[in-house]
Amino acid sequence: MTSDTPTRARVLVVDDAATVRMYHNSLLGEAGFEVSEAANGLEAVEAALGTPFDLYVVDVNMPKMNGYACVEALRSETVGTAAPIVMISTEDRPGDADRAYRAGANLYLVKPVAGDRLVRVATMLTADRSWAAEKDVAA
Amino acid sequence: MGLVRKQAPQEPEEALPEGPSAEILLSRLDDPDPDRRRESALGLVGAPEAVPAMLARVGVEEDPRVLESMLTTLAAYDTEDVAGGLAVHLASDEAGLRTAVAAALATMPRSFPAVLPSLLAAPDHDVRVMTAMILADLQHPEAHTWLVRMICQDPHPNVVTGAIDALLPSATTDDVQLLLDARERFPDDPFLRFTVNAALPRLTGTP
Fold first, then answer.
1. Which residues cross the membrane (chain B) (predicted)?
2. Range of the domain at B167
């Protein structure tokens, strides 16, 4: 049985900088998303194992587990999320975006990301959540 | 006469098993088994002759656990040679390497100041962002002053924002003008503006 009531898309913001988490939480929260936070890749993976999210916003340089490793873990069989993943970083060397896509990210943005752009991207990526239904059916 | 506790017969002291020499441990850093490499890296504490070889391995070691052990051993020396040898990896393309090295440098308060000037002058602004991250965790009485200097002088908004983020846990009312000046210097950076605006109420004690 499914409900006709649309649920708010759930976003996990993963960044070791508290102010970045606060910033993204504020932007996405005001835009109607349900936002949770993780301070590093390990926390993100633990959170994803407990709660399925509709979108992940992941930093690159983090202690304990960096962003690329985090995305690989999220895409691994253990977590197995098919939800979109946006990586956001100050790193904009040639190859950084390629590395993100190889890890499994859907989009790579370079900081600073304008607030309205982040909201637009999040809205676009969570508009069609059919992948979640497919996963539920598969499970 | 008081009772005299009878002493247990003394056992002959058992000789501690002697561990492998630094030379053997160094050769094991190339062992295909990562557990063996990790044990060797940890066993090389107190073997300064092994430092150059370990520094040379930092950039090529692929197992994160081995790398972490090697960095733990190297950071314990806290010398300028080690700090310099590690700092070059802050510009690495490998996120795991540069963040692990940053974490190690943050535990080297005696020697990190020696490499700080070159890091603050690094042409790659990402290296300077990593430097701010290190200063956030470095237990050094001048760390706050260095972050203030970064906020005042660095031309890149990401570096200034990183330095502000690093400064905030230790920021006081005295830093309010510094933050206001940074916000004025980069009026078009939304994240920097948000960071300053979010910090001001706490620092000034006003809602």
1. none
2. 112-207
d(CA B199, CA B207): 11
Give the gap in angstroms from C-alpha B63 to the nearest C-alpha of chain A: 13
Q: Using alpha carbons, list the distances in angstroms from residue A74 to A93, A103, A125.
A: 24, 10, 17
- Report in angstroms the alpha-carbon separations of B174 from B97, B145, B153, B166, B196: 36, 12, 18, 16, 14
Question: Which residue of chain A has the CA closest to B103?
Answer: A63
| Predicted ipTM of the assembly | 0.72
pLDDT (average), residues B3-30: 66
Structural contact between residues B66 and B34, judged by C-beta atoms closer than 8 angstroms: yes
Number of CB pairs, chain A paired with chain B, less than 8 A apart: 66
Six token digits for residue A89 = 């970083």
User: What is the pLDDT at residue B137?
Assistant: 94
Q: Give the residue from A13, A15, A19 with the most B CB atoms within 10 Å of its CB, the best one to mutate.
A: A19
In a domain, B68, yes or no: no
Closest CB to B95 among A17, A20, A66? A66
User: Which chain B residues contact residue A23 at CB under 8 A?
Assistant: 191, 194-195, 198
Q: CA of A134, closest CA in chain B: separation in Å?
A: 33
Shortest distance, CA A6 to any CA of chain B (angstroms): 31
Residue with tokens 């979109």: A84
Interface of chain A toward chain B, CB-CB under 8 angstroms: 17-20, 22-23, 26, 60-63, 66-69, 90-91, 93, 95-96, 99, 111-115
| DSSP type of residue A54 | S
In tens digits, what is the pLDDT along chain A, a chain of 139 residues? 444 555 889 999 999 888 899 999 999 999 999 999 999 999 999 999 998 899 999 999 888 889 999 999 999 998 999 999 999 988 777 788 899 999 999 999 988 788 899 999 999 999 877 666 555 444 3
Residue B51, token pair as written in the block: 């430092």
Superfamily in which the A10-138 domain is placed by CATH: Response regulator (3.40.50.2300)
Which of A14, A26, A61 should be substituted to probe chain B, the one whose Cβ sees the most B Cβ atoms within 10 Å?
A61
Residue B179 belongs to a domain = yes
